[in-house]
Structure formats: C-alpha cells, structure tokens
Design brief:
Blueprint lengths: L4 E3 L5 E4 L3 E3 L2 E4 L2 E3 L3 E11 L2 E9 L7 E7 L4 E3 L9 E10 L2 E11 L2 E9 L4 E4 L10 E9 L2 E10 L2 E13 L2 E4 L8 E11 L2 E9 L8 E7 L4 E4 L8 E9 L2 E7 L5 E6 L4 E3 L8 E9 L2 E8 L2 E7 L4 E3 L9 E7 L5 E9 L4 E9 L1
C-alpha cells in the first residue's frame, strides 16, 4: 500500500505517515525535503522532548547540497530552520546539551576539491557558525562527531595529507575559552581517521576510528584515544585485523561502549570497564554497526545495517540480542539517541521506490 504524503505549507517537505511497528520498534514519521535525496547521519538528545537528527539534502538535478536538521519535540519530528548555516554544507554529528544549547559539526564545500571543517551552535532560536581550524587549509577536511561536556566541546574527523592525498590524518578539534583549536594526539599509523567522540567531563573523553599503515594493501585496526584531562593517550583494543570503529558512547568513566565492524563484515563491539577494553560477543550475522547508546549498566542499543536490512542489537546485561525492525526499502541506520529512561531513537535513511530517492528514517524502540 502506498503511504500517504503530507506536504507542509512552508515548503517542499514530506512526512511519511502511518507508523509501522515490529517487536518494540516503530517507524515514526519524519520530514524529508522533496524533491531530493535526504540522509540523516547523526543523532543526540537531552531528553524525550529534545531529540535531534542531522544530515544533508542533495537536489535531484545538480546544484548545491545543504544541511538538514530535524528536532523531535515530544510530539513530532520537525525541520529546524537553516538560518545562519552556509550552503553546500553537510552536518555529520550533533550534541544536544539542552533545548537552547546544541552543537553540530560537519563540512562545507569551499571549492573544487576543497572542504573545510564546520561547527555551529543553536541557542534555541538561531544558528551561529564559529571559525574552526583545518588540518589541510587547501584540501579536504571532514568532521564526523561532536561531544560537549564540562565546558569543553570536542569534534573529530580527518584531513587529506598534503604530501600524500591518498592518506588521511586524524583531526581533533577542541573548543575551550570560546575558541576552537587543533588538539594534538599521538600518531599510530600513516592513515588515521576518527569517526566518533564522546565525553563525560573535562577530564574524560573518547575518540574512535580506524588506522592502517597502507590504505591500499594493509588491514585496518581500531584507533582508540582517551583524553585524561591533559593529553590524548592511545589504547589498544582486542580485535581481529580489519576492524574499524564507527561509534562510541561513554555513559560513565567506567562504562564505555565502542562499535564498528570487522573485515569479515561482522559487527564488532567492545566495552571499557574503567581499567581495560574487552571484546564482547555479538550474534553471528553479517553486517556493520554505526552507533551505540547506553541507557544503564544493563541496557545498551547498537544500530547499523545487515544484508540490506536495519540492524539493531540490544545489550541486556549479559549478551547482545538482535531485535526485529519494521520493513523498509534498503534502509541504513546511522545514528542512535536516548529517548528516555528505557527508549531509544534510531535514525538514518531509506530508499523510496515511488520517488526513486532516499528519505529520512526514524525508528523508536522501547
């Protein structure tokens, strides 16, 4: 059955109606800009009535892309005005501290083959973009994750090595005292990229990603960095060759989850207990995990994709269990955020055959 389409009076946005439900997960209507391809990449919340998801919209016939920001106010997902954000930009990560304190990061296309880092702040009414440094001012710079805690804001990503464009160098930005600067961290390999960051306070932050000695011929290894209040320290995770990390959630300094995948297209999960990291067994299924959110010591949810279907795993304090999800066309879950004490949002995008375009996807689970 074709789902109804509701056009908003303010412009070309659509909402997919009639929620679909499967085993505790419900597809909730979310706006998409039409025509165009809509992608959601990052999510965060400060409560059940302040949930954010960010991404990008690509027009169907060329032209500049532009960022997409949605907010769930406890009743419905609604688009957030873009005033204050540049054109030709993509939002990759978001941290919602409160309704009037939200940070987003991503990149802005500044010319042919040139992307610059971007960070902006929402004060409850408007966006303010702030100047951010670049690792390679004349090349490609990307920021994927952001975390705010204790008066410090962290953003992580990578930049193209000016002397060898095939290689990437990790990039860590720190905002303290009202200004952004590059935060130095130890180098582990020729190719390094950071995908996510989380923090519990000014003296405890985690950044994760992947590294390799040769991106063309050597396997990836997990890249895990810990901020101890003074400097970044590299830590080793037990993982097979070919493992890359894409998500991290630090509930407390002694309860940290990291997720990703291995070269065998298997989900990968590791846990830090305050002293060391250990790998945690996941169901033997093909797929990749992109994000994780921990609600309590005995409850965590990881999201991603497996064989063209959404992948959602839930930690029950003993093991990871795969959960059923509503059917959708070629979906990809890219982010997760708490929706309350026992609920989680999973966000991403799905393909809509009728429009032959990608649309936003938001699932609510409890």
């Amino acid at each position: 059955m074709r789902t109804p389409v509701i056009f908003l009076a303010t412009g070309a946005m659509l909402i997919i109606g009639s929620p679909a439900q499967a085993a505790g997960w419900t597809t909730v209507a979310s706006p998409s800009e039409v025509p165009g391809d809509n992608y959601l990449y990052g999510a965060d919340s400060s409560g059940a009535s302040n949930v954010w998801a960010v991404g990008v919209v690509y027009p169907p016939t060329g032209g500049s892309s532009h960022s997409l920001a949605l907010r769930y106010d406890g009743t419905a997902w609604r688009p957030v005005p873009r005033t204050g954000l540049p054109s030709d930009d993509t939002l990759r990560g978001v941290d919602a501290v409160s309704t009037g304190d939200v940070w987003v990061v991503g990149e802005h296309r500044a010319g042919i083959g040139r992307y610059e880092t971007m960070a902006a702040h929402w004060n409850g009414t408007t966006w303010t973009r702030e100047p951010t440094p670049n690792g390679n001012p004349d090349g490609m710079n990307h920021v994927y994750g952001v975390a705010a805690a204790g008066g410090t804001v962290w953003a992580v990503g990578n930049y193209a090595d000016p002397s060898s464009p095939a290689n990437r160098r990790k990039l860590i930005l720190q905002r303290a005292g009202g200004a952004w600067r590059v935060s130095a961290a130890p180098a582990r390999a020729t190719y390094e990229s950071l995908a996510a960051v989380d923090a519990t306070g000014p003296g405890d932050a985690w950044a994760v990603g992947s590294a390799t000695t040769d991106i063309a011929s050597a396997p990836l290894t997990p890249l895990t960095l810990h901020w101890n209040g003074t400097s970044w320290v590299s830590m080793t995770l037990p993982a097979p060759a070919g493992t890359a990390l894409t998500g991290v959630d630090a509930r407390t300094p002694s309860d940290v989850w990291a997720v990703g995948s291995t070269s065998g297209a298997q989900p990968y999960v590791a846990h830090f207990d305050g002293t060391s990291w250990r790998r945690v067994t996941t169901p033997a299924i093909g797929g990749e995990l992109t994000d994780v959110v921990a609600l309590s010591p005995s409850t965590a949810v990881a999201v991603g994709r497996s064989n063209g279907a959404p992948l959602i795993l839930r930690w029950n304090g003993t093991s990871w269990i795969r959960e059923s999800t509503p059917a959708s066309s070629n979906p990809f879950l890219t982010g997760a955020a708490a929706a309350g004490p026992g609920s989680v949002w999973a966000i991403g995008y799905r393909f809509e055959l009728n429009a032959y375009a990608n649309r936003t996807l938001t699932l609510l689970g409890s």
